C-alpha cells in the first residue's frame, strides 16, 4: 500500500515536471513564432519598398526611354531638314557655278573678239598715220606733233611747261583741254603718265588723251588710247567711260557690230554704272 502511494506520488511528480517542461516549450515556441512573424512583417515591408523602388525605377526608365525616343525623333527631323537644306544649297551652288562659267565664257569670248577688233583698229590707225605723213610730206607740211610756229631762224619754240608737281601738271593739262588747246593738253597729259606713272591722275590723264583724239575725230587712235585705260586701270573711275567712248567711236566709224560688242561688254563688267545705262539706251536704238 505504501509502495503504491510512493509510485503514485512519483508519477504525479513526473507529470508535474513534464507539464512544466511542456509549458516552457510552448512559451519558447510562441516566442519563436513571434520572432518569425516580426521577421515576416519586416520582409513584407522590405518587399513592398523593393517593389516600390522597382516600379519607380521602371517608371524612370520608361520616362528616360520616352525622352530619348523623342529626342531621337527630333534629331532625325533636324537631320532630314539639314539634308534638305544641303541639297537645296548644293543645287544653288551648282546653278551659280554654271552661270559663273557661262559669264566667264562670254567675257572671254567678248575679250577675244575685242582684242581682234582692236588689233585691226591699230593696223588701220598705223596705216592712216602713214597716209597722213605721206600727204604732209607731199604738201611740204610738218609731221604731226611738231610745232607749226617757227622762229625767224627756223628753230621751233620750246613747249610751255607748267610746274613740276603732278597736281600742277594735271591742272595745267586740264585747263588747256577745256580751252581747246588740244596739243598742249596732250603733251601735258603724256608728261604725267611718263613722269608719274603711279600718280592718282594717271588714269584720268590717259582717258583725256583718248578724248583729245576723239575730239580730233581720229577715232581709231582714240579707241586705242581708251584701251590703255581699260587694260592699265580696270578699277579706275574712267574704265566704264572708256568702254562707252570706245563704243561711240566705233559708231562714228560706222561699225555697229563692234560698237555693240564693246557696249555689251561694258554692261557685263560695270552693270551698275551710269555708262552702262547709257549703253543700254544706245543698244535699244540699234536695228
Jot down its keywords.
287 residues; mainly alpha; Serine Threonine Protein Phosphatase 5, Tetratricopeptide repeat; 80% helix; rod-shaped
Description:
The chain is mostly helical and 287 residues long. Helix content is 80%, strand content 0%. It is built from 8 helices and no strands. The chain has helices spanning 2-138, 166-178, 182-195, 202-215, 219-232, 239-252, 256-269, 274-284. The N and C termini lie far apart (168 Å). Residues 131-159 have low confidence and may be disordered.
Q: What topology emerges from the helices and strands here?
A:
Layout (H helix, E strand, L loop, with lengths): L1 H137 L27 H13 L3 H14 L6 H14 L3 H14 L6 H14 L3 H14 L4 H11 L3
Radius of gyration: 56 Å
The CATH superfamily of the domain at 163-287 turns out to be Tetratricopeptide repeat domain
Tell me what the CATH architecture of the domain at 163-287 is. Alpha Horseshoe
Average pLDDT taken over every residue: 79
What is the general shape? Answer: rod-shaped
Could you describe the largest sheet, including whether it forms a barrel?
none
Structural class: mainly alpha
CATH class of the domain at 163-287: Mainly Alpha
Can you give the helix content as a percent range?
over 70%
Total strands? 0
SSE ordering: HHHHHHHH
Count every helix, treating DSSP H or I runs of 4 or more residues as helices: 8
Amino acid at each position: 500500500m505504501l509502495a503504491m502511494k510512493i509510485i503514485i506520488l512519483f508519477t504525479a511528480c513526473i507529470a508535474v515536471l513534464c507539464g512544466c517542461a511542456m509549458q516552457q516549450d510552448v512559451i519558447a515556441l510562441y516566442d519563436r513564432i513571434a520572432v518569425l512573424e516580426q521577421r515576416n512583417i519586416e520582409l513584407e515591408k522590405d518587399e513592398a519598398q523593393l517593389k516600390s523602388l522597382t516600379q519607380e525605377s521602371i517608371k524612370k526608365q520608361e520616362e528616360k526611354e520616352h525622352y530619348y525616343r523623342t529626342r531621337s525623333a527630333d534629331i532625325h527631323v533636324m537631320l532630314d531638314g539639314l539634308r534638305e537644306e544641303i541639297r537645296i544649297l548644293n543645287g544653288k551652288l551648282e546653278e551659280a557655278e554654271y552661270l559663273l562659267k557661262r559669264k566667264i565664257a562670254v567675257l572671254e569670248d567678248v575679250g577675244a573678239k575685242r582684242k581682234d577688233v582692236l588689233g585691226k583698229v591699230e593696223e588701220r590707225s598705223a596705216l592712216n598715220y602713214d597716209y597722213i605723213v605721206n600727204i604732209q610730206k607731199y604738201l611740204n607740211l610738218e609731221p604731226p606733233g611738231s610745232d607749226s610756229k617757227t622762229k625767224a631762224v627756223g628753230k621751233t619754240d620750246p613747249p610751255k611747261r607748267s610746274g613740276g608737281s603732278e597736281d600742277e601738271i594735271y591742272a595745267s593739262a586740264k585747263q588747256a583741254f577745256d580751252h581747246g588747246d588740244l596739243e598742249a593738253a596732250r603733251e601735258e597729259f603724256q608728261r604725267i603718265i611718263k613722269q608719274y606713272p603711279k600718280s592718282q591722275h594717271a588714269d584720268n590723264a590717259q582717258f583725256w588723251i583718248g578724248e583729245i583724239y576723239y575730239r580730233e575725230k581720229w577715232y581709231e587712235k582714240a579707241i586705242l588710247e581708251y584701251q590703255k585705260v581699260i587694260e592699265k586701270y580696270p578699277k579706275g573711275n574712267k574704265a566704264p567711260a572708256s568702254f562707252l567712248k570706245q563704243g561711240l567711236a566705233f559708231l562714228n566709224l560706222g561699225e555697229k557690230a563692234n560698237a555693240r560688242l564693246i557696249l555689251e561688254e561694258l554692261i557685263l563688267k560695270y552693270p551698275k554704272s551710269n555708262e552702262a545705262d547709257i549703253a543700254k539706251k544706245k543698244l535699244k536704238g540699234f536695228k
